[in-house]
Design brief:
Bound molecules: zinc ion, fe (iii) ion
Number of domains: 1
Order of helices and strands: EEEHEHHEHEEEEEEEHEHHEHHH
Largest sheet: 6 strands, mixed
CATH class: Alpha Beta
CATH topology: Metallo-beta-lactamase, Chain A
Shape: globular
Strand content: 25-35%
Distance between the termini: 37 Å
Radius of gyration: 18 Å
Number of helices: 10
Number of strands: 14
Helix content: 25-40%
Low-confidence stretches: none
């Protein structure tokens, strides 16, 4: 599957997933309609569905406008968000480990509560769309879940193949890498990643997608239970300490 990155607002991303030559696509998250409509137009794509990672306004605000001109458009999100009626216009609920077909490709749903209680991620072939749960070199704030919940959700991403491309909800990579460097100042991997991301941003390029293998080596929120970062803490204590340090970084 081919992924077209659509920047929205100042640092959000929407992603068009399309089978090359099909003329059809789905969009992961709909922060705002105009840039998504422009990308659909530019690539000559028909929008078949909206998949939402969670209910926050900066991920769903474009839904109504996109659906208005497309009667019957599927708006897919988590069962939690459907049950709690948190996403206006949601037409379909998906649950953990549910699998469904998209243009002949299997999509796997992961419920990843923590940032919100209804957060989900989508695994499509070798790609994962993580919303505000896993960022490149970081993770989302724990707004609704517990630290334990969030750490368990993040740990699930570690089971995916290392080559998996990571498409996250925001361009927060530079700041995240600076924090990662403060946690592991001796890491050459983080030092190199910071140089690379700085060059990309200066050139006006996106840092997404990342690779899971790289994340496993640089992202403190995937490494919270590594003895180097954990010390004498429990895994949850270690995760909590890291997340709280990032909150005030
Ligand atoms: Zn969010
Ligand atoms: Fe967000």
């Amino acid at each position: 599957m081919h992924v077209i990155i659509v920047p929205c607002y100042s640092d959000n991303y929407a992603y068009l997933i399309t089978e090359e030559g099909s003329g059809h696509c789905v969009v992961v998250d709909a922060p705002e309609a105009p840039p998504i409509e422009a990308a659909l137009e530019a690539h000559g794509l028909t929008l078949d569905a909206i998949w939402l990672t969670h209910h926050h306004f900066d991920h769903v605000s474009g839904v109504a406008e996109l659906a208005k001109t497309r009667p019957g458009l599927e708006v897919l999100g988590s069962r939690y968000d459907m049950q709690h009626d948190r996403i206006a216009g949601q037409t379909r609920a998906v649950a953990d480990e549910e699998r469904f077909d998209c243009a002949g490709h299997e999509v796997r749903v992961l419920e990843v509560p923590g940032h919100t209680l209804g957060a989900v991620a989508f695994v499509v072939d070798g790609d994962v769309f993580t919303g505000d749960t896993l960022f490149l070199a970081g993770c989302g704030r724990v707004f609704e879940g517990t630290m334990e919940m969030m750490s368990e959700s993040l740990a699930r991403f570690r089971e995916l193949p290392r080559e998996t491309r990571v498409f996250c909800g925001h361009e927060y990579t530079l700041n995240n890498l600076r924090f990662a460097q403060s946690v592991e100042p001796q890491s050459e991997i983080i030092e190199m990643a910071l140089k690379a991301a700085t060059a990309q941003r200066e050139a006006g390029e996106f840092t997404v997608p990342g690779r899971l293998g790289q994340e496993l080596e640089q992202n403190p929120f995937l490494r919270f239970d590594d003895p180097v970062l954990m010390g004498d803490d429990t895994p949850v204590e270690s995760f909590t300490r890291l997340r709280q340090a990032k909150d005030s970084f």
